[in-house]
Specification:
Layout (H helix, E strand, L loop, with lengths): L2 H4 L15 H7 L5 H7 L4 E12 L15 E11 L2 E11 L19 H4 L5 E3 L3 E5 L4 H12 L10 E10 L2 E9 L3 H13 L1
Antiparallel strand pairs: 1-2, 2-3, 3-7, 4-6, 5-6, 6-7
Length: 198
C-alpha cells in the first residue's frame, strides 16, 4: 500500500470487514454510550482533553460531514483514561457552518465526555457506525501514538489500531466522532472478568 493511500482509511459499514480480534470486535460494536461501558468496566474513568479549536479536517472526513473538500472545522481530541491508562483516543470534528444553536454544549465540554451529552439529548440523531483498521501513515495513528506516549503508554510502531466513527445530527448541525481503540482497552474486560469470578 502506498504512503498516500495510507492517509485515508477504508471505512467499512460492517465491523467484521476490519477483521478485528474477537475481544476488540466486542468493543467496536459496543451499543449505546462507550463512556458508560468504560466507566462500568474500570475503577476510575476520566477524560483528558488534548486539543480543541480550528483545524483542517482529515482527507477521509470531508465527505462524511457533507463538505466538498478538506476545510477548516472545529476539532476536539481527547484521551479516555481508565485506571490511569489511556484506552481510547477520541477525535471529533464539527463543520464551521454549524452554530452554537446546533451544538450548544460542544465548546464548553472541557474534560467532560462528549458521550454524556450526545446520548441524553432527545434532539440528537445517531447515524450508522463505520469501522476501519488504521496503520502507520494515517494522521490519526500519529496523533494516537503521540498522545499515548505522553501519557506513558507506548504501543509500538507496528501496532494496527481499530477504529469506529459515527455522524451525529442535531437540528441542522453535523458532528463526526471517531474513536480509536488502544490495545490497553482489552485489559479492561479481562480485569472485569477476573473481578467477577472472585
Amino acid at each position: 500500500m502506498r504512503g498516500g493511500s495510507l492517509r485515508q482509511a477504508a471505512w467499512q459499514p460492517h465491523a467484521r470487514a476490519v477483521r478485528a480480534p474477537l475481544a476488540m470486535h466486542d468493543w467496536l460494536t459496543t451499543p449505546g454510550s462507550l463512556t458508560a461501558r468504560l466507566t462500568a468496566q474500570s475503577g476510575s474513568f476520566r477524560v483528558r482533553r488534548l486539543h480543541q479549536g480550528g483545524a483542517l479536517c482529515l482527507a477521509d472526513e470531508a465527505r462524511a460531514i457533507a463538505l466538498p473538500r478538506r476545510e477548516q472545522v472545529c476539532e476536539r481530541e481527547v484521551l479516555l483514561v481508565c485506571d490511569g491508562r489511556p484506552v481510547v483516543f477520541g477525535h471529533t470534528v464539527v463543520p464551521m457552518r454549524c452554530t452554537a444553536h446546533d451544538w450548544p454544549l460542544f465548546s464548553a465540554l472541557g474534560e467532560r465526555s462528549l458521550g454524556t451529552t450526545l446520548f441524553y439529548d432527545p434532539l440528537v440523531r445517531r447515524g450508522r457506525l463505520e469501522f476501519a483498521r488504521l496503520r502507520a501513515g494515517h494522521p490519526l495513528v500519529e496523533r494516537v501514538r503521540a498522545a499515548a506516549a505522553g501519557a506513558g503508554d507506548d504501543s509500538g510502531d507496528e501496532t494496527i489500531y481499530f477504529a469506529r466513527r459515527c455522524v451525529y445530527r442535531r437540528r441542522q448541525g453535523l458532528l463526526l466522532v471517531t474513536e480509536v481503540f488502544l490495545p490497553a482497552v482489552l485489559d479492561l474486560a479481562a480485569a472485569a472478568h477476573l473481578k467477577n469470578t472472585k
